[in-house]
Amino acid sequence: MENNEIIYGKNNIEALLASNKRKINKIFLAKGIKFDSKIQKIVETAKSNGIIIQDVPREKLDNITSGTHQGIAASVSPIEYIDFDDFLNNMKANLEQSLVIILDGVEDPYNFGSIIRTAFAAGANGIIIPKRRSTPVTATVEKASAGAAQNIPIIQVTNINSAIEKLKEANFWIIGAESSGDKYYFDVNYDMNCALVLGGEGKGVSQLVKKHCDFLVKIPMPGKINSLNVANAASIMIYEIVRQKMTKKSPQILDDITAKL
User: Fold this and answer.
1) Which residue among 37, 52, 76 closes a domain?
2) Which of 100, 202, 205, 223 can pair with 195 through a Cys bridge, CB separation 3.0 to 4.6 Å?
3) Cβ atoms 47, 179 nearer than 8 A
4) Does residue 65 sit in the same domain as residue 105?
5) What is the pLDDT of residues 194-227, one digit of tens each?
6) Mind giving me the DSSP string for 173-189?
7) Distance (Å, rounded) from C-alpha 151 to C-alpha 137?
């Protein structure tokens, strides 16, 4: 399995097969696993694509994975990150109220995976991460993303600030999430192409990246804690952007939601 990665969990394997973005070398099934509808579908899809399926002792899956594998794992080729210039050119062709997430030094794989899941659910165009001082897409990240990592462009760049400048040239506004921000996140009008910058655990957005942001916004915290988990902060802010964009397109949506409260 040298140079390959192990991806595990039913949702992740199903997403791998559906996306067809990475070569699956082999699927491992725990001996005696109960064939529910999802496992059955995975096995049928794998067989139709000529992918080897191997029954193995559950202990082997325990050894090659680092979490709840649900009795299934796969040996896959390493992820291929999207080229930034290609990503930007593709967006320019359909640039309308786009949303990009930039992670400045997020090192916890569970946080990264959770942010990927939220970004994909919210319809974000892609996620940008730096090559250094950031967790790459690993099996743990993919498991935490519940398969979303296979379905949203993830771009790895050498220099975040250079990427930000190119985004600005493409008519993006850069919004940094920072406790020292001079505006609350819900006081900003997101009727624009925007890139949301989220800083790493405990460190926040780096000073140099802050200087490249057009706005620094914060989440009010009147309680006895002065910071949020970056994945939680990402969910709050991403869905405020989504809320504004949706209600602008269809004001009736907000009326319908309010009527149900």
Assistant:
1) 76
2) 100
3) no
4) no
5) 999 999 887 889 999 999 999 999 999 887 776 7
6) EEEEE-TT-SEEGGGS-
7) 13
Q: Among 66, 60, 69, which Cα is nearest to 39's? A: 69
Q: 8 is written with which tokens?
A: 């595990």
The one-letter amino acid at 41:
K
Domain CATH code at residue 36: 3.30.1330.30
Spatial separation of the C-alpha atoms in residues 105 and 90, rounded to whole Å: 25
End-to-end Cα, the chain, rounded Å: 53
Rg (CA), the chain: 20
User: What would the two tokens of residue 143 be?
Assistant: 């498991």
What pLDDT, in 10s, does the model give residues 139-192? 889 888 988 988 899 999 999 999 999 999 999 999 999 988 889 999 999 999
Pairing type for strands 72-76 and 24-30 reads antiparallel
